[in-house]
Design goal:
With about 110 residues, this protein is of the alpha+beta class. It has three helices and four strands. The chain has helices at about 25-40, 65-85, 105-110, and strands spanning about 5-10, 45-50, 55-60, 95-100. A four-stranded antiparallel beta sheet has the order 2-3-1-4. Strand 2 (about 45-50) and strand 3 (about 55-60) form a beta hairpin. Helix 1 packs antiparallel against helix 2. It is globular. The protein starts with a strand and ends with a helix.
Length: about 110
């Protein structure tokens, strides 16, 4: 039986460049995260969006973190590439995920 796990996720722009270029880009990213929550049924405890990266604390009851992250990162990359009339990678490689002890409270995690 798979037990839910909580992870801190970070992902940043290719060559540490920006991944959001307007307020609408931040809104679209948040929309994509919300869509992913509906599709993959994970908990989003907290997140922060910076110009060239984002961090989040998620908890998933299924072994589907790869699918979640693929959806979020590819949705945002496709959106930005269409909007900016560009092609290629927006994100720098694979996201980073750090497993967190389940006993930690999400507010404590958000200070990391």
């Amino acid at each position: 039986m798979f037990l839910p796990y909580r992870v801190i996720i970070t992902s940043r722009g290719n060559e540490k460049k920006g991944i959001y270029f307007s307020d609408a880009d931040y809104d679209k990213f948040k929309y994509n995260m919300d869509q992913a929550r509906g599709i993959y049924a994970f908990l989003l405890h907290c997140y922060v969006l910076m110009i060239n990266q984002y961090h989040s604390v998620v908890e998933t009851p299924s072994a589907n973190l790869n699918s979640i992250m693929h959806y979020i990162n590819s949705s945002h990359s496709n959106y930005v590439n269409r909007k900016m009339k560009r092609s290629g990678h927006l994100m720098q490689g694979r996201y980073r995920a750090m497993l967190v002890d389940q006993d930690n409270h999400p507010l404590e995690l958000s200070a990391i």
